[in-house]
Amino acid sequence: MEGEEQSPKIIYDIIILGASGFTGKYVVREALKFFDASSSSPLKTLALAGRNPSKLAQALEWAAHPNPPPAIPILTADTTDPPSLRRLCSQARLILNCVGPFRLYGEPVVAACVESGCDYLDICGEPEFMERMEVAYHEKASEKGSLVVSACGFDSVPAELGLMFNSRQWVSPAAPNRVEAYVSLESEKRVVGNMGTYESAVLGVANAGKLQEFRRSRPRRARPVIPGPPPPKGPTIEHQKQIGVWAVKLPSADSIVVRRTLSILTENPRGLPGVNESSEQIAKKEAFWSTVKPAHFGVKISSKSLLGIFRIITVGIFIGVFGKTAFGRWLLLKFPSVFSLGWFRKKGPSEDEVRSASFKMWFVGHGFSDCRLLSEGNMKPDSEIITRVMGPEIGYLTTPIILLQCTLIVLSQRDNLPKGGVFPPGIVFGHTDLQQRLQENGISFDVVLRN
């Protein structure tokens, strides 16, 4: 009614968008572990958002089970309705976006967050989306004080922190030349992937040409100075005896995200300035980044058997060939279980399959015991350091763990993070206590071998 006073708008610490989706409901479950208005947790207020309020209520009930669901507000928002997204962002300190594929649904959410000046994290593993968002929104996000960070899940935090962890084992005058990550997915039952990951891969093939064109149109980024010659190409299928796996190159977002972080670090060797850092925090951040040494980086998917590698290659060929035409993509998305040889299915994995799955990510680093000797001739790497990151199932357990720990850092340490801009996770969270937090929540970092 006219003249009636409007109630003050509630600002939530976080709003989880897409909370009723396959991954979204697991993110809600992880968030509830830290949601406590009466404790020292920085997560005091929380809301869920999406198109369908009844599905959101069901997701909350599922996530809270066996406890009764807490009284958490359910908000309606749709990625095809920009005004609804702007209303949502005006009520949040931080939006967690779980609505994928991001190339189809992500940009309106980023645009609304940047416009509102609220922060944004997502679980995207799509290089094209991340690169386009950086070009389109970085400057405005910097002005508005909106921190936009993609890939805050299994893509690509284990790769980012894993590379840094390996890199920091090379104590000067030693230095790495290349680090290769070998991803191994394991299960006591069967490995069943996230359908969103499969859909993103299919769409990625369809748009590969556009991505190359887009990259050619951009100015080249700063390249880090890496000691020694570029690494040899190596065989298509590799037997990595040290860790007992067969491996083939994986066209994942991880290597692209890591290269973006190393490039930004080359331009900002002391790290990115925080909003309002203390001199102690600045010294701590600079000390951390001074120990991170750049290296050539690549990712391979691995299996204990050669048969497993041929299965991976077969699925890759199906997606590569069929993903190029509209009819082929329809087939791939209509019959995911057939074309992925059972790895992906529309209804996703069962609770038992999620619980029984895990991952290992080995980082095999080759470098020089004394890089000062490089000037004496064409010296080959003479040292090896192998490190490992391990954790639970990647899509529904590890990804929510990572997203929530990044969230808690944004809520509790905002002054130590950049004012705003579009960044990969490594350069934003590398110097924080994220690795320690992950270790306390079931994701381990170990040194396996030094040669």
TrEMBL record:
<dbReference type="GO" id="GO:0016020">
    <property type="term" value="C:membrane"/>
</dbReference>
<feature type="domain" description="Saccharopine dehydrogenase NADP binding">
    <location>
        <begin position="14"/>
        <end position="149"/>
    </location>
</feature>
<dbReference type="GO" id="GO:0009247">
    <property type="term" value="P:glycolipid biosynthetic process"/>
</dbReference>
<feature type="region of interest" description="Disordered">
    <location>
        <begin position="217"/>
        <end position="238"/>
    </location>
</feature>
<dbReference type="Pfam" id="PF03435">
    <property type="entry name" value="Sacchrp_dh_NADP"/>
</dbReference>
<dbReference type="InterPro" id="IPR051276">
    <property type="entry name" value="Saccharopine_DH-like_oxidrdct"/>
</dbReference>
<dbReference type="InterPro" id="IPR005097">
    <property type="entry name" value="Sacchrp_dh_NADP-bd"/>
</dbReference>
<comment type="similarity">
    <text>Belongs to the saccharopine dehydrogenase family.</text>
</comment>
<dbReference type="InterPro" id="IPR036291">
    <property type="entry name" value="NAD(P)-bd_dom_sf"/>
</dbReference>
<dbReference type="GO" id="GO:0005811">
    <property type="term" value="C:lipid droplet"/>
</dbReference>
<protein>
    <recommendedName>
        <fullName>Saccharopine dehydrogenase NADP binding domain-containing protein</fullName>
    </recommendedName>
</protein>
